[in-house]
Amino acid sequence: MWHAPRTLPAAAWTVLAVLTANASAAPFAYVPNEKSGTVTVIDTASQAVVRQLAAGKRPRGIAVDPAGQRLYLSDAGANALITLDLPGGASRSTPLGKSPEGVSVSRDGKLVAIAVEESNSVTLIDAATGAQLADITVAGKNPEHAVFSPDGRWLLVSAEEAEQVDVIDVAQKKQVGAVAVGLRPRGIGFSPSGAIAYVACELVNTVFVIDMASRKAIARIPAGKNANGIVVHPSGKQVYVSNGIDGSVMIIDTATNTVSATIPVGKRPWNMALTPDGARLYVANGRSNSVSVIDTLGARKLADITVGELPWGVVIQ
């Protein structure tokens, strides 16, 4: 079994320590590059790449804890969760099942959830110790994302071979329900209150709006071809969906559940992240080896930033 090195190169941590220590610095965007085996670090103030970090064999899912102290990566090449301390320097490798993908962290930073494709399960990890707390079987085959609700009570799980999103009760550590959606659900996002969830369904080019209280889809919003990534603005007023074949990002007005703008980006846009203030959206373009930066107020693309090969997504902290 492969294990991540105990420390990254000293130079990498020196750069990150200096950047993290600067309280006035803009947030940093972290981009896992699946084919390169790296994480690209972008300064969101200058849009400059400040570092490429070694990140196992095949990094895909990525999440950062709320305090910005740890970065979590699923390594599909080594079937492991890599934990990188920012800026302490230590790294940890936790074994997982075959082909782990999406990673999510609870808002309190105590739990990490990883969707594991070949075991059709979600693994729950204690963030402090790296211990496995549970491996929860779900109904959907090849789960891709497992996303915590804002209150940490639920996990919504999407899978490539499904027409539903599965609902896990975190305290009970088991699936307790499912919500019918379209073929191949992918990206998941919650409204700030957690009352509503948005799910992009790739094979029906639709975003489903889910009422979490009733566990029913209450609206269907037409999106572009191969709707994929989802992210919700901190205000709750906009939802962003990436369209893989169209090479675009659509902005959805949540008051009307209609598309208000479509913005061209790179090839095969996938997962995305917003800066904490919601002013800019960073979009990983898997086939362009780039990240597009979108001005959310002006609904326009500002820049394309070259990263590694096959970027999977973005987190910002």
Silhouette: globular
CATH class of the largest domain: Mainly Beta
The rounded Rg comes to 18 Å
Tell me the helix content. under 10%
Strand residue percentage: over 45%
CATH third-level topology of the largest domain: Methylamine Dehydrogenase, Chain H
Intertermini distance: 31 Å
Name of the CATH architecture of the largest domain: 7 Propeller
Count of distinct strands: 28
**Secondary-structure element pattern, one letter each:** HEEEEEEEEEEEEEEEEEEEEEEEEEEEE
Task: Tell me the major beta sheet.
Answer: 4 strands, antiparallel
Number of helices: 1
The name of the CATH superfamily of the largest domain reads YVTN repeat-like/Quinoprotein amine dehydrogenase
* Count of individual domains: 2
**What structural class should be given to the helix and strand makeup?**
mainly beta
Could you list the spans in which at least 5 consecutive residues all have pLDDT below 50?
A: 1-24
Q: Biggest sheet, strands in spatial order? A: 3-2-1-28
The average pLDDT score comes to: 92
Give a verbal description of the structure.
The chain has 317 residues and is mainly β. It has two domains: 1-15 and 28-180, YVTN repeat-like/Quinoprotein amine dehydrogenase (Methylamine Dehydrogenase, Chain H), CATH 2.130.10; 183-309, Methylamine Dehydrogenase, Chain H (7 Propeller), CATH 2.130.10.10. Helices cover 4% and strands 54% of the residues. It contains one helix and 28 strands. The chain has one helix spanning 10-21; strands at 28-33, 38-43, 48-54, 59-64, 70-75, 80-85, 91-95, 100-105, 111-116, 121-126, 132-137, 141-148, 154-161, 164-169, 174-180, 185-190, 196-201, 206-211, 216-222, 227-232, 238-243, 248-253, 258-264, 269-274, 280-285, 290-295, 300-306, 315-316. A four-stranded antiparallel β-sheet has the order 3-2-1-28, covered by helices on one side. The protein has a four-stranded antiparallel β-sheet with strand order 4-5-6-7, with no helix packed on it. It starts with 9 loop residues before the first helix and ends with a strand. The model is unreliable at 1-24 (pLDDT under 50).
